[in-house]
Amino acid sequence: MIRCLIIDDEPLAQDLLQDYLNDFPDIEVLGKFNDGFEAFKGIGELKPDLIFLDIEMPKITGFELLELLENPPKVIFTTAYDTYAIKAFELQAIDYLLKPFSKDRLAQAIQRVSIDEDNGSVTQSKMSKVREDIPKEGFLKRVVVKTGNKIEVLNASNIASFSADGDYVKINSDGKSYLKLGTMAYYEKMLDPQAFIRIHRSHLVNISTISKIEPYQKENYLIFLKDGAQLPVSKKGMVKLKKALRI
């Protein structure tokens, strides 16, 4: 028996998929969710083998939901948009169903599901690689993070800094810190370079949050942020910073 969840913000799409799945004896629908916040909780509590996941949803997207899951289940994407197909298959999702799809097309996707195989498991390493490889569609406006069982959506303009922390990036915003799996290279690429400067190999800073800059050791500097943080600036980083601040 394959235990699954339906995650879609359209009630009609949920009901149609549920009706289709009722004809598959090896599929058990554990629940249906309208948004990524509730789905995040549901996945943690119900631990499904498979999720049918829409991409464009309110609050957070399907891709953002997957970023928050440490051990994501197998995924079949269900969406009205064909623009995400390449990204979905790079994540090695089982299938990508373009709405409206038929029961026969759904059957083809379900045939690919095997609980004993790794195919279709969207691991965090896959998510990290795909995030860095996909073409950029405008600068990052928000960052979705989790704290325990809660999800927070951070406005990029409110984030003071990003700092490398092993395989994670520490995100500092409004006096709080969050850890998220990722790389500094990804955030440097995705954030507006007019607002965020890579001041050091380990630090990326929102220049609007800088309160002062002081010399520190030979040819190095320290910046002081409005939240009280102090971060080192490399020689190369100082060149970028001076250019951005026009000093």
Automatic annotation (TrEMBL):
Positions of the HTH LytTR-type domain: 143-247
Keyword set, alphabetical order: DNA-binding, Phosphoprotein
Protein's recorded name: DNA-binding response regulator
Record domain Response regulatory: where: 3-114
PANTHER family: STAGE 0 SPORULATION PROTEIN A HOMOLOG, TRANSCRIPTIONAL REGULATOR-RELATED
Presence of the UniProt keyword Phosphoprotein in the record: yes
Name of one Pfam family that matches: LytTR
Residues bearing the modification 4-aspartylphosphate: 54
MF annotations from Gene Ontology: DNA binding; phosphorelay response regulator activity
